[in-house]
């Protein structure tokens, strides 16, 4: 996906609860939507060609944006596991089928490790969360034969933070909570940002979201980064989701769109501070199959200086088993402007910001903390 302007209106209907804003109403509608029914008729599908999308209410909302193709070479695109730049579409960028596995594997196997921070750290020791992949891989590989086994640790993973670690309570980043940002993900982000006209983008913070089929992400604005002139990049893998892109205020009805595996969303300019949410992850048609682009790992035909690596059959089996009922989303942010430092002392204005809405944790329907329902903000 590209830079998108807010659009309003939706074909979805549902009685509003008293005092409910337009965004919340559509969030509820899509949370309880039934895949395969007319419920999803109004959701924009970027994977359908522009002509085939027709002139329905969704079609008119797709904004074509120009990519700065000369700033990314085909070689660097290939190194990052992306298609040659000439194939990138103006409203959307799709990952190179086959190399999506690299990023899925990194999210599950590598980025989930220390010193990165994850949701499990709150209740578990460093030793217990040291290697979620090792502890879970056998469970996942024999998933078919034992569907009723307890969830493995990887399946309990909800989020991981990278670089400047986002503090969910203060809704801030800080200079003293930083670990090195993964260089392969930084490289991918730089290529995508450059193609969208943002040369010199610095990947400084990442939030990785791990969705099960019953997970939702509450309505929020990502405003904690100190430089809002830099884009926010979001990469999606695995099962498709409904993404709601709203306006600056929550009383503006959001635009629903599908986020498929390999889609990249760039929120920049006006859209950088828009409300958004994920009310629904869609189960695959067969219940436990993978999107076509993730079917099998492609034979490795990578440049010698590639940052993506071939995925072994064993690793692929674990990732495939996991992704049959899951979605993984990586968001990459530049926190500081070049030359900028974190403020030494929070200003009065920043203190007030803490109570305003910010990013929300993932919310599971069966989890005990139902943030999306408990809090009016998310
Ligand atoms: C986020 C976010 C969207 C998604 O992490 O801030 O908005 O598609 N993620 O998961
Ligand atoms: Mn967000």
Strands, helices and their partners?
Blueprint: H1 22-31, H2 50-53, H3 74-79, E1 93-94, H4 100-110, E2 117-118, H5 132-141, H6 153-156, E3 159-163, H7 183-195, E4 205-212, E5 215-220, E6 232-238, E7 241-245, E8 255-259, E9 263-267, E10 276-281, H8 313-323, E11 326-333, H9 348-355, E12 362-364, H10 371-374
Antiparallel strand pairs: 1-9, 2-3, 3-4, 4-11, 5-10, 5-12, 6-9, 6-11, 7-8, 7-10
Question: What descriptors fit this protein?
Answer:
alpha+beta; disordered N terminus; disordered C terminus; single chain; 7-stranded antiparallel sheet; 378 residues; binds N-oxalylglycine; binds manganese (II) ion; Jelly Rolls
Structural description of this entry:
By secondary structure, the protein is an alpha+beta fold. It has a single domain, classed as Alpha-ketoglutarate-dependent dioxygenase AlkB-like (Jelly Rolls). It has helices at 22-31, 50-53, 74-79, 100-110, 132-141, 153-156, 183-195, 313-323, 348-355, 371-374; strands spanning 93-94, 117-118, 159-163, 205-212, 215-220, 232-238, 241-245, 255-259, 263-267, 276-281, 326-333, 362-364. The strands form two sheets. The protein has a seven-stranded antiparallel beta sheet with strand order 1-9-6-11-4-3-2. Strands 8-7-10-5-12 form a five-stranded antiparallel beta sheet, covered by helices on one side. α5 crosses α8 (313-323). It is globular, with a radius of gyration of 20 Å. The structure holds N-oxalylglycine and manganese (II) ion (MN). N-oxalylglycine binds next to β4, β6, β10 and β11.
